[in-house]
Design a protein that fits this description.
Blueprint: H1 8-20, H2 28-31, E1 63-71, E2 77-85, E3 94-100, H3 111-120, E4 124-128, H4 146-161, E5 166-176, H5 179-189, E6 193-199, H6 204-209, H7 218-236, H8 257-266, H9 288-291, E7 311-316, H10 322-331, E8 336-341, H11 348-351, H12 358-368
Parallel strand pairs: 3-4, 3-5, 5-6, 6-7, 7-8
Antiparallel strand pairs: 1-2, 2-4
């Protein structure tokens, strides 16, 4: 997304400018935090892989959907899609779930799918946009604020818990990718989240401080922080917003496998979605000056204090991100479960319904929100 009326050509220049700069002297694995930055010439024409039931934009005749907005504690509105079983008895109170999208995505990418599937199974379910993304308020667009992201889950509980057809003592949540770390951050200080599941979780703090497999050095981290600090002067004086990371806009012979995995979802019809007022050239890309906020984000510290509320961690056994689910599981106290999906990579669990263990999610929440 761009700020205001920035033309697509300007956004493209921004992307290329960042690539030319030496601010991200990362290793290949480190650059995979959000993706290798590459010179771009336009949007992709490559075909998407729709195998294994990829169905990001799934809709269901058994479910109704309503667009909703509600304020978080700092009085910015959060946008959500509320999914209800079509035969829901509105005179009774039912268990409910809040679903958070991958980092850099919006609710139309993966979160709506999960919420729809859980509503098909009898739950009230709501997919939300994190602040500064999608339909939620917050400026600048694509800004990073881990505290506000966690707050949006608590605000969703505020909303769900005041619906007459929701039992406020039976609210849980699902965090996909980066939202897995945000919902854990929220749950540590919000006991109203009674059961928490994460899918393909990224610890967005560790991913930015250390990169995958701790491949980012402290000196490289300091270079990133210094470049972001200098960019603050530019933006304070009215200069253009710059973006970092995200998913590359086209594939080259040198594109790494992790970028290709993200590209197949975010840059093809399989999962591409540009929110109203945004630009496809900047979707998935956080602002450069704000992304360093993740350096101070430690969602797994004190994760054991969530107990005795249950935690379910789901990851593909081939996922490049599996280290984060393993770390969280090791630190968490009982009750906890770690489920490996055979043959699944990180992005596979965004939308491949033949791989996503919805039965396991249903049994987990049925048991713990009883």
């Amino acid at each position: 997304m761009t700020n205001g009326n920035t033309p697509p050509s300007a956004a493209l220049d921004q992307d290329t400018d960042i690539d030319r700069r030496a601010l991200l002297r990362l290793t290949g694995a480190g650059a995979a935090i959000f993706g290798v930055l590459g010179a771009v010439s336009g949007l992709p024409a490559e075909a998407q892989d729709l195998s294994r039931g990829a169905a990001n934009f799934h809709t269901s005749e058994r479910v109704t959907r309503e667009a909703v907005t509600f304020p978080h504690q700092y009085r910015m509105n959060v946008a959500g899609n509320l999914f209800l079983p079509r035969n829901l008895d509105r005179n009774a109170r039912h268990p409910a779930l809040v679903v958070g999208h991958p980092m850099g995505a919006v609710k139309e990418q993966s979160a709506n799918l999960y919420a729809t599937k859980m509503a098909e199974r009898g739950f009230v379910a709501m997919a939300i946009d994190l602040p500064c993304w999608g339909g939620s308020e917050g400026e600048p667009r694509n800004a990073v604020s881990p505290d506000l992201y966690a707050e949006s889950f608590s605000a969703a509980v505020d909303f769900l818990g005041t619906r007459p057809f929701v039992d406020r003592d039976r609210i849980g949540g699902i965090g996909i990718c980066g939202s897995g770390s945000f919902i854990i951050s929220a749950a540590k200080i919000d006991p109203r989240l009674r059961a928490i599941a994460t899918v393909s979780m990224y610890d967005m703090g560790a991913a930015n401080r250390d990169a995958l497999r701790k491949s980012l050095s402290v000196e490289q981290r300091k270079d990133i922080i210094a470049a972001a600090a200098e960019q603050r002067y530019v933006e304070f004086e009215g200069g253009k917003t710059e973006y970092t990371g995200g998913t590359t806009l086209r594939l080259t012979a040198d594109t790494d496998p992790i970028q290709r995995e993200f590209f197949d979802f975010y840059r093809t019809p399989r999962g591409e979605y540009t929110p109203p007022g945004g630009s496809p050239l900047t979707t998935t890309k956080p602002t450069l000056s704000s992304n360093v906020k993740f350096m101070n984000f430690y969602p797994f510290n004190d994760i054991e204090t969530i107990s005795p509320r249950p935690l379910l961690f789901i990851s593909g056994d081939q996922a490049h991100s599996r280290e984060f689910s393993e770390d969280a599981f090791q630190r968490a106290a009982e009750p906890k479960e770690l489920v490996w999906v055979p043959g699944a990579g990180h992005v596979d669990l965004y939308d491949r319904v033949e791989l996503i263990p919805f039965d396991r999610l249903e049994s987990f929440f049925t048991m713990h929100l009883a």
